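Methods: holo model generation. Sequences were used as deposited, without trimming of termini or removal of tags, and paired with ligand SMILES retrieved from the corresponding compound records. Each pair was processed once, and we did not select among multiple samples. The sequence and adenosine-5'-diphosphate SMILES for this entry were:
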Amino acid sequence: MKRFLRESAAIVEVELIKLMRDPTEIISRAVQPVLWLVVFGQVLAQVRGIQTGQLSYLEFITPGILAQSVLFSAIFYGIGIIWERDLGVVHKLLASPARRISLVFGKALAAGFRGLLQAAVIYLIAFVMNVSLKQDALSIVAVLFSVMLGSGIFATFSLVIACIVKTRERFMGIGQLLTMPMFFASNAIYPLEIMPGWLRIVAQVNPLTYLIDALRGLMINGGQSVHGYYVDFAVMFAVFGLLLFVAVRLYPTLAE
Amino acid sequence: MSNTATPHLQRIANMNTTKHDSFAINTSELTRQFGNLIAVDHVKLQVAYGEIFGLLGANGAGKSTVIKMLTTLLPPTSGTAEVGGFDVIKFQGAVRRSIGYVSQLLSADGALTGYENLRLSAKLYGLDKAEREQRIANALAFMGLEDSSHNLVRTYSGGMIRRLELAQAMLHRPAILFLDEPTIGLDPVARHLVWDRLLDLRRDYGMTVLITTHDMEEAEELCDRLAILHRGRVSVVGKPAELRAGLGDDASMDDVFAHYAGGSIQESGTFREVARTRRTAHRLG
Ligand SMILES: Nc1ncnc2c1ncn2[C@@H]1O[C@H](COP(=O)(O)OP(=O)(O)O)[C@@H](O)[C@H]1O
Ligand SMILES: [Mg+2]
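and the model returned the structure below.
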């Protein structure tokens, strides 16, 4: 266990060093959420076309946009993995005695820290726009934890895809193909109840839905988790565990 | 717990129990197929402790595939291989702790400094904190990289990157080093620097070195013994002088290569090599 933590921490450390050294990505990733909240959110709020219960439309989509920004930034994590493979960094890591689970979990954890920056951006925008946010420490810690877990899930998913497709071009294609459907087939910008039946089924097997559901309850005053936190977190942990299991098996094939 | 000490102790413990314990590397019928292609074909290699052993062959001969199997990165299709007395399939962890590896690609992380690259390796090999800083400082001094240790690796020259990678690979004092074309793309001065360091490592720590190369001067000057691979098969093994003598009085290493590797060195896929080297250099630059 100690070894696992030490090895994962070593991976997280270098990832964070690299992130701090090149923050352009963080900045560019902040643009989209601003557009969604400021433009889309405000316009749709005027229309009043979507029933969002007690929450204003802006309050309703704020957790959805946070989850979206987590998804969009984590899902391209695999590009970095493919880059490391082309460079030979992966070979070096895999020839070391570090456990494969440490290497994979370290990557997921680093993505989690990256996700925290997304959360900071969304909190800032939401605060400026007068969204009624829960401000007690427990809620905020729970939101940050959910964001890290969500980032870990999508980053590991991305790593699995990278291990399967192995080239940047194919990865970009698949990444583009997956993100938008995952976003629209979720409860990010409209509630599950107003979806047609088939879409609701898709949304209910989409892990993003559970992240958003938890965030909606944890983040917004008057917001509530439709499925309940137990279900939300049970689903997220199960998906994360499954993805880690698959990733640990596939990651070593990158060096073959 | 010291991860680095264990394999050596275990190896000593294994000495009289394993059949081929006296070889640093010992393979038998080692084979790897990719679909229909037999990249490595029933290879038998025996490398003694403390030897600098060269694996020669044209592009696509199977050199990297052999190294990948010996470093546990790639499972063999059939046959067996022991490294440091450990089977590469059954005792992957022990093999990994016994070896250092520098891949054919430029594996140092260009977005990190030399020091940060070394610290990552030290942590992954389980060196504890006090030992870590000491070893890193020593390795940087040994490789002549002290002054640039806090610069990003992407600002390094090719020779510096190779020396950094070598420093990473030797940090945990492995018994056996695997170097896949370590001097490709380096100028003669940089190349000689790498050779000198390898000879020092062998002298100071008795390290065994398996190196792949296309370079005949490297094969002759650095390596104690050579194996030439041709289309996945070992076509000959021996000391450089023996191999030359076997072909006649005034045979050169180029003649040896041409004879055993199926064509002269100039013809063997140099374009692909150059393209790859340039691509890698471009990425780092
Ligand atoms: N992962 C792989 N998948 C399919 N073919 C491969 C793979 N790795 C190597 N090969 C093929 O195996 C042969 C030997 O390759 P390699 O060991 O890299 O040769 P060398 O290092 O001597 O240039 C080549 O024909 C190469 O194309
Ligand atoms: Mg090769």
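The first helix of chain B runs from residue 5 to 14.
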